[in-house]
Each structure stands twice: as C-alpha cells, then as structure tokens.
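User: Please predict the structure of the protein below. I'd like the answer in structure-token form so I can feed it into my own downstream comparison script.

Assistant: Understood. Taking the following sequence of 297 residues as input:
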Amino acid sequence: MTTHLFATLLTARAVAANNRAENDGNATTLQKVIRGGRIHSTVSSEAIRYALREVWHAEDAESVNRRPAGAGFEFADKEFKKPGEFIDTDVLGFMHAKKETLNRRAPLEVCRAVSLAPWPGTISHNFASPGSNPAVKAKDPIPYAAEVHDTRYQYSVALTPGSLLKDAAGRTERTLRGLQNLRRVAGNHARYLYDFSPEAVVLRVTPDPAPRMLLCFEEDEHGHLSLAPLLARTAGEEPDVEPGELIVGTALPVARLEDLEAAGASVHSGVKAAFSEAIRRAAEGLEADATATKGAK
C-alpha cells in the first residue's frame, strides 16, 4: 500500500489583477481559460510553486536550494549533486538542461488555479502622473489599464509522501503548512495584494492513486458555494471516493457540507485544523507503508 495525499484549496474572495508581466497595449492582462463555455481568469501552477518556495525560504533560508528573487535567485547547489538536502529540489523537482539523468519529476503536482466565477470583462482605467516613472520622459499623464477580477480561485495538488527523498513526514508537513499560509501569488508587483491562503480546503489521504476530487467547489450566480460534485462521488455501495478519507475545513457556508459529514467526512470549522488532521493522517500512512514494506521482505 502507498499513501497518497490530495487537496483542493479555495481562496478568499478578493480583487486579482496583473498576475503576470505581459501587456495588451497599455493594459496589463489576466491569464484566461475557457471553462464550461465561459471565460475564467487563471493563475499558473508555476506562480503557486514559486510562492511556496518563498514560504520555505522565510522559514529557513538554508533549507532551500534556489533562493527567491528578493534573496538573489542564487542556487546553493546548481548542479543538483545532493537533491535530497533541500526541500525545494526534493518536493518541487528540478530539471538540468544539460544533464537529463539529473532531472527529477516533482512529487508535488499543482493544478492551475481557476477563478470560481467567470470573468465579466472588468477593466480598471488609470493615469500615471508625469515623472512617476524616471525611465519615461512624458509631460502629460500616461493612460494605462488593468484587467481585474473580483473572485475566488480554486486549485488542486497531489503528493505521494513516500516518494520524498528525505524526512518524508517533516517535509510533507512543511509543504501542507506552506500551502495553508500562501500569500503572494496572484499579484506580480508590490502594489497588488491577493491573499492566496485558503479559506476552505478539502483534503484526502488515501491509498487510491487517483485524486477524483480536482476543482470540486462550485459557486452559483448568487455566490453560494457547494460541494455537490464531490458528494456525488461518495455515493453508492462502492463509491469513487470513500467519505471517511475526506477532511474538510471551512468557516464558510457550503451547500451539502452537512451531507458530506453525515456520510463520514471529517469536517472542521477552519482550515488550520483540517491541515493538522491531514498531516497526522499522512504521517500514520507513512508508518503503515514502511511496516508493510518490511513485512513484504
């Protein structure tokens, strides 16, 4: 048996803007995808992974191989001679452009974050005052615009703790705590803030190798949240998802949450308690996996 950990995280509702450094004319643009026949804004998995590295670096700079931008972007081990020594090269994987045998697939897989609500096409128009940018010599105010979206984002992750090279239980905990405490993801410049820490989370610790719960939150036109798609997968004599494997944390009103709890899911009134239970279950799963492996030998 191998223990797997899956999660779908839902952010607070806020205004996202300028989450990348690309423009359309004088307008900074949001990345977008078509979902359910409608346009949704999206945030890349790379941005989420980078923010996770920032969290780890703030906790313990020596535990990270690649430093974030504010710390110089240097690699402590650019040849990846000891990939297990650093949490980011272990959890996030790496690619060496000239030595393919050194490449490591990331044990932590991250979906793109997708807005819960469709993007209505909102654009904010502004003017930069003369002299605000020393690189631009203009006597008149400079018009610019930004695509903005007042929404929540949801994204999913997958991790097999036993595939980590070192301190699997400890690094699984640091990874989950990092996701719990994510901050600067959807804003590209210091002037923007979008809190990417989850306001609701669904976690699953299971021997099942497939998530079966990606992007499981829904929101109707009135902003009401629901976990109906996930509940449907827990039904029947042989459900796709065993409800007892699910851990839900949220203080938000979510439709069908009571039904999930009645079916056997563990429900908490906040995300921190849900993460704590998932960390405990993952550690127990690692111990059970190790015992089973020794028994097989």
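That's the full token string. The CA atoms of residues 97 and 249 lie 41 Å apart.
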